[in-house]
Write a structure and sequence with these properties.
- By secondary structure, the protein is α+β, with helices and mostly antiparallel strands.
- It has four domains: 171 residues, no CATH class; 154 residues, no CATH class; 191 residues, no CATH class; 133 residues, no CATH class.
- Helix content is 56%, strand content 7%.
- A hairpin with a 2-residue loop joins strand 2 and strand 3.
- It starts with 14 loop residues before the first helix and ends with a helix.
- About 2% of the residues have low confidence.
């Protein structure tokens, strides 16, 4: 089992924090591989105990159990299945009364410190004994006891039943029975389920749902990847959809209210204002437009404006220019006038968004800016968006004041076009979205048929590039869509169409979901890049307190970058020591959410890695995702994808979408059923990280890592890649030192990639290296070429071997020639003993040649460089073993004397 990281490093402040920081990791270390059977088949004992502990923490808090008793209730829950903890599998009642055994189990679970007195031990014993259905059956029936023990025992019983693998309807009935006793009141349960997850916008919806339900006296009992479980004395009998939609809308408005500058954008076609911006704060929008106009003024270039004037003047014709000049309509010729022309263009674009025709737009703009009727008629031949603002500047006598009034009116028209009647507090679109995205037990509106009809009857040109095809479709440019979104309609590229960027069709809620991500995540302050998205979900049945701790942890990590940008990990510590150390970065890393309410059942973390290929970005993202997902104190299911929207989490622990064929030998299918499957992939990535930093500098570690990953298609080639990188970094590297660093991670990686393969290739190469070291078969030095000299002689003989010569002759000639070579370079020559050693050495290589390569020279020669690298590292291993044996023999001799 690999060593997992811990993310919660601060001292715990509450019982819940102490549980997740100290107790939960211990449960997984002790029982992660203890599998269960029957109705709990498919889960481990650690998962069951964790689920029960979290449930008890939540229920005891709702029931307002005294703070000095809650730790004892938690301690009893952490060890309540004593029969599963006992090797002899004795009964719970017998074990609960074995004080030494109970104390030992409490200590193993890190909860013994809660049990400080004999009374505490007695209470823990009673709770454990009674949770399994035992009644008071001995003399203690006559002794006084705490009157609340019946309620506490019911809490523990409910916690034990909570993760039973039976249908929800039956399980909820059992839970309601126990919780009715635990709360001393009626208790009803219901699940709120998501039908789709769109990231931040879904988190805000769940937050709104919880806020409304709490107002009606309901409490959140547990969180699931696809929703939450609530309990209350009485369930609401009214449809709360509209109320939830109103709270949801207000939460969305609050987000955009603080990000107007992201929604007022300068483009090559003019300053554009999104619908969300004008719904928040019109005055703030005007401030941002004026700031952008000041920037336009500062960037004024006379030659560029002259080209535009010439272009649009020619388009209108000589007669139009002449008539305009007679009325004083002379085109822009300074920075002040240029800023006013850009203001006119911004107002024009905003009016057009309200649905007005170009003629209606300019009639209104003329009224606000002081353009006379004659001047208005004179500029009619010019292009409404590009030409008229250039020639109408001098007629706009009211200047910026007039433009400001025109913008205000256009904004008001746009707001009115999206508002419903005054009686309705929230748009029907938002109510329909609530109905579509979340399943509430009191919802009475069904929209499935409408959605199906919208899909069937949709115009082909309105098929969605993003989201589902519905009645609410927006036409957006690429900046308002996720990177890589395909264009569905190319009508503007046909003859006679404009040259502007083609529009993307998007479901309005899906587009709003992406814009929330773009505004709400700490993206780097660089040009937009295509990110990968790490989707992390709270495990099934998580306590609401875990959500609070998780939100706080993400806030702390994001605060690592004080400027509000991305955070990345220290790669040297990650690759070399497997430690997660976050640090600020302006260009690459994880774009964590800016607000805690963006995190609920799941969280989406965009990951940007700069100018690297897609495979390397996938590897870096998966390594980071696995380190977070498999941390001892968090442990979240995950999905890694290039898509913003993914399927809701099912029973699969982890999923990686879009694994290239070259990475599949290392990463597998991308479907990891259990955390153990994900652990295996993390172990491989850790080994490769260590190998990369062992032979390459940290600046080149990513390049080396990518080469190693590609070599996993044929794992034996890892040796060659490692040798090549060692030689690239140093002309004469210390191979002995390098081998001591890479031996362990390389062996672990090869064992993981080839668990059941006993390779003859490595067997014979190891044997040959062992013989070479023992017999000192090498050249005249300890350099790389000298160490591989006898092996190189073998490959050279294979290359020059003729088909009509038998192998007996080739290997006999090899022994003879290399014997002569050794006799020539050794100071005192070599004798017959060396000849026998050479014969044994080349007999091993002959077996390699015949049994592995079937005596086919082309196959062996194609692997020549790989074989030499493997042989060279095995030489280092054999030298290390020989040195260790010599030291042991020397130690034994000294001891004997």
């Amino acid at each position: 089992m690999i060593k997992r990281n811990r993310l919660l490093n601060r001292p715990p402040k509450s019982l819940e924090e102490r549980y997740f920081t100290e107790i939960r990791p211990q449960l997984y270390e002790n029982h992660a591989h203890h599998h269960q059977y029957g109705v709990r088949k498919g889960t481990t004992l650690a998962e069951h105990l964790d689920s029960a502990c979290q449930f008890v923490l939540t229920v005891s808090k709702i029931a307002e159990v005294a703070e000095d008793k809650r730790p004892l209730l938690l301690a009893a829950t952490a060890v309540h299945d004593l029969n599963k903890l006992d090797p002899q599998e004795r009964k719970v009642k017998t074990l609960a009364r074995d004080k030494n055994f109970l104390r030992e189990q409490l200590e193993k679970a890190y909860v013994l410190t809660f049990v400080t007195s004999e009374d505490d031990f007695e209470l823990v014993r009673k709770l454990i004994e009674r949770h399994s259905g035992h009644n008071i059956s001995d003399g203690t029936i006559f002794l006084p006891e705490d009157e609340n023990i019946k309620q506490w025992a019911a809490m523990l019983t409910a916690a034990d039943l909570f993760d039973l693998g039976i249908p929800d309807e039956k399980r909820f009935r059992k839970l309601e029975t126990e919780l009715t006793v635990a709360f001393d009141r009626s208790c009803k349960l219901f699940r709120v389920r998501l039908s789709e997850d769109k990231g931040y916008i879904t988190a805000l919806l769940l937050g709104a749902c919880e806020e409304v339900l709490q107002k009606y006296g309901l409490h959140c009992l547990a969180i699931f990847p696809d929703g939450a479980l609530f309990e209350g004395e009485v369930l609401p009998n009214a449809d709360l959809t509209k109320e939830i939609a109103a709270v949801w809308q207000s939460k969305i408005d609050q987000v955009f209210g603080n990000n107007i500058e992201r929604l007022v954008r300068p483009t090559k076609d003019g300053i554009k204002v999104t619908q969300q911006a004008i719904q928040q704060n019109i005055e703030e929008v005007l401030v941002n437009i004026e700031a952008l106009l000041e920037k336009k003024k500062a960037s004024y270039k006379s030659d560029k404006i002259a080209k535009d004037v010439s272009k649009w003047g020619e388009a209108a014709g000589t007669e139009a220019i002449k008539k305009a000049a007679e009325l004083g309509l002379i085109p822009v010729d300074n920075s002040e006038e240029f800023a006013i022309s850009e203001g006119l263009k911004a107002a024009y674009l905003s009016y057009r968004e309200a649905g007005l025709s170009p003629k209606e737009v300019w009639d209104k703009m003329a009224h606000h800016t002081g353009i006379s009727e004659q001047q208005r008629s004179a500029i009619e031949p010019f292009n409404g968006q590009y030409g008229r603002p250039l020639f109408a500047v001098k007629a706009a006598v009211k200047g910026m004041d007039g433009i400001r009034e025109a913008l205000k009116e256009s904004f008001q028209l746009r707001k009115e076009s999206t508002q419903t009647s005054e009686e309705v507090e929230v748009s029907e679109e938002m109510v329909a979205a609530v109905n579509r995205m979340i399943n509430l037990p009191f919802t009475i509106q069904l929209s499935g048929v409408n959605d199906l009809n919208a899909y069937i009857e949709a115009n082909p040109k309105q098929r969605c590039s993003l989201g589902s095809t519905s009645t609410d479709i927006d036409e957006l440019i690429s900046d308002n869509m996720p990177p890589g979104t395909k264009v569905q309609a190319f009508s503007n590229r046909l003859p006679g169409g404009i040259s502007a960027e083609p529009k993307r069709q998007a479901d309005s809620i899906a587009a709003l979901a992406y814009q929330l991500i773009a505004v709400g995540a700490n993206f780097p302050a660089v040009k937009k890049q295509d990110p990968l998205y790490l989707h992390l979900a709270l495990p099934k049945g998580s306590a609401p307190e875990l959500l609070r701790i998780w939100r706080e942890l993400l806030r702390q990590i994001a605060a690592t970058n004080g400027d509000g940008g991305t955070v990345t990990v220290d790669e040297l510590q990650l690759y070399r020591d497997n430690n997660l150390e976050f640090k600020a970065n302006k260009v690459i890393g994880a774009a964590l959410p800016k607000r805690p309410e963006f995190v609920h059942t799941t969280v989406i973390i965009p990951l940007v890695w700069g100018d690297v290929n897609a495979s390397l970005a996938l590897l870096k993202s998966l390594r980071l995702g696995l380190e977070i997902s498999l941390s001892l104190d968090i442990g979240f299911p995950f999905t890694l994808s290039s898509n913003l929207e993914v399927e809701l989490f099912d029973d699969v622990y982890g999923r990686v979408e879009g694994i290239p064929a070259a990475l599949q030998p290392l990463l597998g299918s991308g479907q990891y059923q259990q955390s153990e499957d994900a652990e295996k992939i993390l172990e491989r990535l850790r080994c490769i990280g260590k190998l990369a930093t062992s032979v390459a500098s940290i600046q080149k570690a990513d390049d080396c890592l990518y080469d190693l990953v590609r070599a996993c298609v044929r794992p034996i080639e890892l040796y060659f890649v490692l040798l090549r990188w060692a030689l690239r970094e140093q002309e004469e590297p210390n191979l002995s030192l390098i081998w001591s660093r890479i031996c362990e991670p390389l062996s672990t990686l090869l064992e993981s990639l080839m668990p059941n393969e006993s390779s003859l290739l490595t067997k014979y190469l190891k044997e040959a290296a062992q013989v070479a070291v023992e017999a000192n078969l090498k050249g005249s030095s300890f350099k790389r070429t000298s160490l591989t000299e006898p092996f190189t002689a073998f490959t050279s003989a294979v290359r020059s071997h003729k088909s009509y010569m038998d192998l007996e002759y080739m290997f006999a000639f090899l022994v003879q020639e290399y014997h002569k070579r050794l006799d020539r370079i050794r100071e005192h020559g070599v004798g017959e003993n060396k000849r026998e050693q050479l014969k044994r050495y080349y007999d091993v290589l002959r077996k390699l040649y015949e049994e592995v390569y079937l005596a086919r020279p082309e196959k062996l020669l194609s692997d020549q460089k790989t074989l030499e690298a493997v042989y060279l590292f095995f030489i280092e291993e054999a030298r290390k073993q020989l040195k260790s044996q010599s030291e042991d023999n020397s130690s034994e001799t000294t001891t004997t004397v």
